[in-house]
Specification:
The protein has 148 residues and is α+β, with helices and mostly antiparallel strands. It has a domain at 27-115: Nucleic acid-binding proteins (OB fold (Dihydrolipoamide Acetyltransferase, E2P), Beta Barrel). 18% of the residues lie in helices and 29% in strands. It has helices at residues 3-23, 32-37, and strands spanning 29-30, 43-49, 56-57, 66-72, 77-82, 95-103, 106-115. The protein has a five-stranded mixed barrel. The longest helix is centred in the N-terminal third of the chain and has 21 residues, at 3-23.
Length: 148
């Protein structure tokens, strides 16, 4: 066998090993129950803010501690402690994606990603999902001027 074939097979083997080892880091969204059953392991949990529960953020006392409650996709509500500042417009978010791990009954988040409401109104979207300018309101805030 030629040395070039052996080198090519070796490179392919190394690349396959790398792909397999990094594929373990790809994660899907999980629930609090899954994170609870794997206590201490990092997960991404998606849900919505529990607006009927209190939020705690006191930047004078500790600017890197934000506590709130979230309802996951399975309907389970848990307290979340985020080691960071409270994101802007947090209360307006439609969906929250947390990256972190369970510590007892509390989810400790290392990252918080917010999905904010769309600036486009559903009634102004046509049947193909495109924003229809002809249906846009006549309010000055609705009209924009663009240059090519």
């Amino acid at each position: 066998m030629k040395k070039s074939y052996i080198a090519a097979l070796l490179i392919i083997g190394i690349l396959m090993g790398y792909i397999i080892s990094t594929s373990a880091n790809y994660s899907t969204y999980e629930s609090f129950a899954t994170a609870q059953s794997n206590n201490g392991k990092q997960f991404q949990v998606v849900g919505k803010l529990a607006k009927d529960r209190p939020m705690e953020y006191n930047p004078q006392k500790d600017p890197n501690r934000f506590s709130f409650y979230m309802v996951d996709s399975q309907g389970e509500t848990r307290q979340v402690i985020y080691a960071g500042t409270k994101p802007q417009d947090f209360e307006k978010s439609e969906q929250i994606v947390l990256t972190g791990k369970m510590n007892g009954e509390v989810f400790e988040a290392s990252k918080v990603l917010l999905k904010c409401p769309s600036k486009y109104i559903a009634k102004d979207v046509d049947k193909n999902g495109y924003y229809d300018m002809s249906k846009a309101g006549t309010n000055a805030a609705d009209s924009t001027t663009t240059t090519p």
